[in-house]
Write a structure and sequence with these properties.
alpha/beta, Alkaline Phosphatase, subunit A, ten-stranded mixed β-sheet, binds zinc ion
Length: 381
């Protein structure tokens, strides 16, 4: 009975946010205090689709062949993504904003433009005793994941960024980038140094599945993992499932984890709609696992967003002949996905939230607001 009443209370708080497009009063961000009192947040799952804007998501709704789990979002907002140095952000500056709540120049990792290190929400969560994790389909030292734990004036210094994994007691990380831990120009072996700190460092998800305690680092590729279309399989959904299993074994303290679908961005850069579609499908499968986890784990907040849009993707229509393939010479009666650039764009990016405290993420935001609101929800110092 208590549970039913609690659910009704949650519904009463969250549902108005879900209709934010309908009424002017709902366009304002919700004040957080009411939500905070009703719904303590213990676990935060931040999911980033690299290069994922509205067209990318819509392409999956129209041509993905399966329901979009993202559509279960209870609260939807928009974030601006410009960096300190450009109207069009790169992944490093965007990740710095999403990790630390501060704008920096393109190319920089969790440092101010004048090279002062910035504290990330993951570092703050770890200091507060929460379990923390990073899951990625690219190198774990790539810009998006590493901004949550590393600090460097350049995203290119991936050997240095790998060494930053020794500085924060992160409980779990899964991704590629093994070379930056074990085949380094300075001859150090960061995997061995992590082992000396008590980590299990291993190289397969099967090994991870057999573990029941952290800290653990799983390095699945020398550099990036491949695209889904090149054989990555269900690594991201599996890794998400395993990460949530291990991090939630942390008792009452809760956890913070960032999970990235990195290669949606590649589809945009390559102007390849099929890659966008297969990578969104994979990311959305991981989203489903996170939302199902939130359903059975009270106090879990899931935030799903992108870091920027890639490709200037549009979905033109010609009656119902629109399709995902490339336009071939002589195609007159087909409408296909179009791209306006091989790079990133400045477009606003949707922010989807689900579970405890989801209403905090409705309305208009800047990317720097997101970690601030996460830190508030978790009462981080
Ligand atoms: Zn990016």
């Amino acid at each position: 009975m208590k549970r039913i009443l609690y659910s009704l209370l949650i519904a009463a708080v969250i549902l108005p946010g879900a209709t934010a497009h309908l009424q002017a009063r709902d366009r304002k961000p919700k004040t957080s205090k009411t939500v905070q009192a009703a719904e303590p947040v213990r676990n935060v799952i931040l999911m980033i689709g690299d290069g994922m804007g509205l067209a990318q998501v819509t392409s999956y709704m129209l041509r993905g062949g399966a329901p979009l789990s993202l559509a279960r979002a209870q609260s939807i907002g928009l974030q601006s993504t410009f960096s300190a140095s450009s109207e069009v952000t790169d992944s490093a500056a965007a990740a710095t904003a999403l990790a630390t709540g501060t704008k920096t120049n393109n190319g920089m990792i969790s440092m101010t433009p004048d090279k002062q290190p910035l504290r990330s929400v993951l570092e703050r969560a770890a200091a507060a005793g929460l379990a923390t994790g990073l899951v990625d389909t690219h190198a774990i030292t790539d810009a998006t994941p590493v901004a949550f734990i590393g600090h460097n004036e350049s995203r290119k210094n991936e050997d240095d960024l790998a060494a930053d994994f020794l500085r924060t007691d992160i409980d779990l990380f899964i991704g590629g980038g093994r070379d930056h831990f074990e085949k380094r120009s300075d001859g150090r072996n960061i995997s061995d140094e992590l082992r000396e700190k008590g980590y299990t460092v291993a190289y397969s998800l099967d090994t991870l599945a057999a573990l029941d305690k952290s800290p653990v680092g799983i390095l699945l590729a020398d550099k990036s993992l491949p695209l889904v279309s090149q054989g990555r399989g269900d690594m991201l959904p599996r890794a998400t499932d395993q990460a949530l299993r291990l991090l939630s074994a942390n008792g009452d303290k809760g956890f913070f984890v960032m999970i990235e679908g990195s290669h949606i961005d590649n589809g945009g850069h390559d102007n390849n709609a099929e890659t966008v579609l297969s990578e969104i499908r994979d990311f959305d499968a991981a989203v489903k696992i996170a939302l199902d986890f939130a359903d059975r784990t009270p106090g879990t907040l899931v935030i799903i967003t992108g870091d920027h849009e890639t490709g200037g993707m549009t979905l033109p229509s010609d009656e119902n002949k629109f399709d995902m393939g490339k336009l071939q010479p002589g195609d007159k009666n087909r409408a296909t996905v179009q791209f306006s650039t091989k790079g990133h764009t400045a477009c606003l990016i949707p922010v989807y939230a689900y579970g405890a405290g989801a209403a905090r993420f409705s309305g208009f935001m800047d990317n720097t607001d997101i970690p601030k609101r996460i830190a508030e929800a978790l009462h981080l110092e």
